[in-house]
């Protein structure tokens, strides 16, 4: 992963440096997304990081079982700022889905009550 | 440590733990809000309200994200099935959906999801405009979260309850206390769907409207963004951010004079550094070296985050021949 990533960043930086010579017009405008997120930075750096974030997030979605072509389309739908926020902490972001964790919690509470001697659920089974 | 010793030490910790939980419960009760106490004026006129026309899609296992999104999209006039949305937002490996992907999927269906202020009255207000509210709940605990998306469709002030489309439940009635608990633990996240071609909802702030529209710019839909920003400058004419955003959309569409006039309106309200930088950049592209440098000179102080951008703009302005005519 580390090697792959540095290889990708090397290529991307080289590509962006050559690209930046023909997109000077955009370079000095502060975008609306930067204004609302308060994350104004050098536009060229942002382009490179956006590209890396796209690859990172797509790979993470695929690791989590999203089909490759769906992951591609989904990542394309995200804005630069959204991608960057995701790439930073996609693991920690809440994924709403009504998971069945609560059963585990109930079990834990029962076990504690049992150990404490309040209940006798497990000994009677 | 044997099971017996563990049991003994847990027994010693039992009553302190119980009293702690009881105390926490008491404090929670002490601040439990009542719908009647909210500052929302319309609550007095409409003690009960329910958007009964809101569609209902009973959720499949783990798929409350697609179901809740289909519900609010449907209410906004875009009928999309949860099955279609599952391909756009569901993550099998996480058994759920991420907030940011819900926002992106809304844009895919010609709607924007506008974030609401993290206050109870802000979340209730959109219902008065016939807009149900998509929100994130944590039905578990802070340490063991159980994330869940649901859709708020009504309130019942006399009973102090809220009404939600939630999971397999078409009409979940939730006490306000329980709702606030779960919504609090979920980070107080809530959004409404809006059509970017229509005026912004009454219940959203200028900043949240612009933040919802801004991704359309980098999504190659600057014409749609321009329409929505124009509506923003009409609704909030003294909001400098609305004029700056409008300028960016006009700039992306190649309308330099239009971008310049919007930026002029923005800096007339507040001499914001980003607005002045962008004004200088537009003037450079129109060939106005002197006017570009004048705009840059008004930036004080230079915010560190913008230092390199502003330096680039200044270099470009200085490289222009001073006597070049403006286009």
UniProtKB/TrEMBL annotation, chain A:
Domain of life: Bacteria
Residue intervals passing through the bilayer: 99-122
Keyword vocabulary terms for this entry: Membrane, Signal, Transmembrane, Transmembrane helix
Signal peptide: 1-27
Pfam families tied to this protein: DUF6627
UniProt cross-references to NCBIfam families, sorted A to Z: PA2779_fam
Protein name, UniProt field: PA2779 family protein
Organism: Hydrocarboniphaga daqingensis
